[in-house]
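Let's practice the habit of predicting before peeking. Look at the sequence and jot down your guess about where helices and strands might fall. Then scroll down.
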Amino acid sequence: MLLLILFFVVTFATVAALLWCAFELFRDRQDPLADRLEALQAHAMATSTAKTRRRGGGFVNNLLYVISLIPGGEDWLADAEDELGQAGFSRKALAVYTAFQIVFLIFMVGAMWWIQIGASTSSKFIGIVAAFLLSYLLPQQVLHFLVKRYRQKLRDALPDTVDLLGIVLGTGLSLDQSMARVSEEMQFIYPELASEFSTVVMQVRAGQERAKAFDQLVKRTRIEDIKSLSAMVIQSERFGTSLSQALKVYADSLRSKRKLRAETAIGKAGVKMLFPIVLFILPALFVITLVPGVLSALHDLRQGLGAPR
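Done guessing? Here is the structure:
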């Protein structure tokens, strides 16, 4: 009986994950301009020179090389590496993520095979397929959640960081020195954005063009506010305009956007609380308020019916 319950739970989780993925895939987009820009960027990246993986360098690199030889494996590795970068992980995290997903896949399939020992062939096949799909989709959904959380942390940190960057620029420091100083000051408050600024500074100090370094920052984060900041810095460097005053104005606009996002979240809280209230709180409230009266009425009716005439 326990094995049957576990089988139905795994099957239900797999079907729910598939339905959620289908909903996320086919739902209507709210920003067609952003979708068009993302499609153009993906097309430009696809037409660029492809990075080939080579054998050697340890077991992990050999594993990635073998996966890249599988049809579609190189695209899967590139997408996973891109999403890991958007979640704030380094390139070395690709090997850990790939090894974890392979081990998780083997564990889920083996556990499902062990659970269904003695079952029919059709049940084993359905269970193994369900375990395979769940082990493939669950790490990807966790990675999508980490990407969203990382982007939200960057959005929350951007107004204060940009304001501090404008103040430091006003003291007479250069842009690289100001970004390095801001990253040091914000390391313990907003470590995600401080790490991104520190990466840009190290790239520029290594000899890379500032425009290219900021362009890579935009590709890593894919946040419109950071894209606007990058365009502002590049234009200021190109035309020689003052950047500190522009950053102060931009920081005010970012605070206004953050305030509007908070108000929107507060407005949606009532709708999100409706379903838990209906499903969990109202039934308990009905039981507490109505059951004593119903029991009392049944008790009175039983005494009235059983009384002698």
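How did you do? Residues 144 and 260 are 24 Å apart (CA to CA).
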